């Protein structure tokens, strides 16, 4: 899709900083989020005057959040960690500058709400304060899609916000599931184990299978919601949905069956 490639190139130019380029990896531009935002803008009954600017601003804010998530107190030298923090701050500033120049105060407010909601959920997960599996998956879904949901709200297309939520949650669940099966390590499955088996010091095979079945149940729920969505989709979005629906699932089902 030419438009998607053009937007991606514009974002990469904005992200390009000569000093950061030498010292920290360039952030990836999430093409799925671009595709979802472009699709909802095309279908929007009340699109903004400058749709490209709104999409680019949303992507910059998401990249800023993702960049800050990379900062840990373990590994790497202090200077690199400081540069990663500064890079995240820079991307956040670029987002604000874009929207401030367009005078779209309403969207700035909506994105600010999304960032607050995302950070609140991240803190809950970090502190392991979630007590129900359903709440855990809802929190992860919000973290993945809150910015896109606010963009959908801004353009009067909430159905696209729900669609993006299921799409991005499905993608995240598949990645976590794959990590758990291949390496035995996954942030999501660690949280699920903490809820389902709070006193266990290690997971038995049956407990692992139980967690995989729980995850598969939510994966199926997301797929059903996506297939039931009555939205005009372009060929690229249909292709990506088909990719998400297939792929690693066969391996996981075999793993669950074999234990």
TrEMBL record:
Pfam families: HEPPP_synt_1 (PF07307). GO terms for biological process: menaquinone biosynthetic process. It comes from the Bacteria. It comes from Geobacillus kaustophilus. This is Heptaprenyl diphosphate synthase (HEPPP synthase) subunit 1 family protein.
């Amino acid at each position: 899709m030419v438009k998607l490639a053009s937007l991606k190139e514009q974002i990469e130019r904005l992200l390009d900083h000569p000093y950061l380029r030498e010292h920290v990896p360039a952030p990836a531009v999430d093409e799925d989020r671009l595709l979802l935002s472009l699709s909802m803008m095309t279908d929007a009954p009340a699109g903004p005057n400058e749709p490209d600017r709104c999409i680019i601003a949303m992507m910059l804010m998401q990249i800023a959040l993702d960049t800050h998530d990379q900062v840990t107190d373990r590994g790497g030298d202090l200077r690199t960690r400081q540069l990663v923090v500064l890079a995240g701050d820079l991307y956040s500033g670029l987002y604000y500058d874009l929207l401030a120049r367009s005078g779209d105060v309403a969207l700035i407010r909506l994105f600010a709400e999304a960032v607050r909601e995302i950070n609140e959920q991240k803190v809950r997960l970090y502190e392991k304060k979630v007590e129900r599996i359903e709440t855990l998956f809802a929190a992860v879904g919000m973290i993945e899609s809150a910015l896109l949901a606010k963009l959908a709200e801004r353009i009067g297309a909430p159905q696209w916000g729900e669609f993006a939520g299921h799409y991005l949650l499905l993608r995240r669940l598949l990645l976590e599931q794959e990590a758990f099966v291949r390496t035995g390590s996954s942030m999501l499955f660690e949280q699920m184990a903490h809820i389902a088996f709070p006193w266990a010091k290690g997971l038995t095979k049956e407990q692992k299978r139980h967690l995989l079945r729980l995850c598969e149940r939510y994966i199926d729920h997301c797929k059903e919601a996506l297939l039931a969505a009555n939205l005009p989709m372009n060929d690229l979005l249909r292709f990506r949905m088909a990719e998400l629906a297939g792929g690693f699932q066969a391996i996981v089902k075999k793993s669950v069956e074999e234990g």
